[in-house]
Amino acid sequence: MLEIKNLHARIAEDGTEILRGVDLKVNAGEVHAVMGPNGSGKSTLSYILAGKSDYEVTEGEILFHGENLLDMGPDERAAAGVFLAFQYPIEIPGVATMEFLKTAMNAQRKARGEDALTIPDFMKRVKARAADLNVTMDMLKRPLNVGFSGGEKKRAEILQMSLLEPSLCVLDETDSGLDIDALRVVSEGVNKLRSPERAMIVITHYQRLLDHIIPDVVHVLSKGKIVKTGGKELALDLEKNGYADYVGAAA
Ligand code: ADP
Ligand code: MG
Ligand code: MG
Fold first, then answer.
1. Which UniProt keywords apply (predicted)?
2. Which of 116, 152, 216, 224 lies 20 to 30 angstroms, CA to CA, from 59?
């Protein structure tokens, strides 16, 4: 589904190189964890997958279902089935969460040449999924993310993800700022979306999210390169011994 080859990228503004030759292959049905110390380039990798303009790819390529992802704009990527849950969800004052979700779903449908959802059809879908994620009607009426707690933001984001039914989900530090209960609700929401047709890249600094979302493959990113790949036990090893064994390896 996704193949990242020798990806080098830098910050557009000042030319600082962040990614220094990332290789990553993700098949449909797989959940990959990308772990690594702060500043290793995890968020940068997710932003590049989403098509954020602050970064420049200087070398390498990204194939998504065999197509060049880097040639596609952010909207095209979303329509093609890429979804990114950001580490820091943005607040949109003045736009009710419900309205935002409807706009996102209909934009995706339009890009795919499908008709907009009718209001009853949209409401039916939202209510069914929102209930699973403890997203209340009150939250749906409030402006997106404004005054939401950390847990509410992440739940709203997973709700958006479940409504868009992406084929590739990239979750950047979904566990940050969550207490144990919120972590469980969010993880269950993510686990429900696991399927043979869908792949996920779960980015996290800590092992604890991976107690709930069990990955098939674990990668360690350090200084802009994947320096180690293993099974789920690699995450446990990192929890016990820290990143020190791997951090030097990329230098
Ligand atoms: P991680 O998510 O692994 O903590 P990031 O991808 O956020 O790492 O950042 C990698 C490095 O690049 C850090 O040193 C960070 O400060 C720097 N960086 C990332 N994006 C920007 C940006 N837009 N402007 C300046 N520095 C950035
Ligand atoms: Mg960070
Ligand atoms: Mg980050």
1. ATP-binding, Nucleotide-binding
2. 216
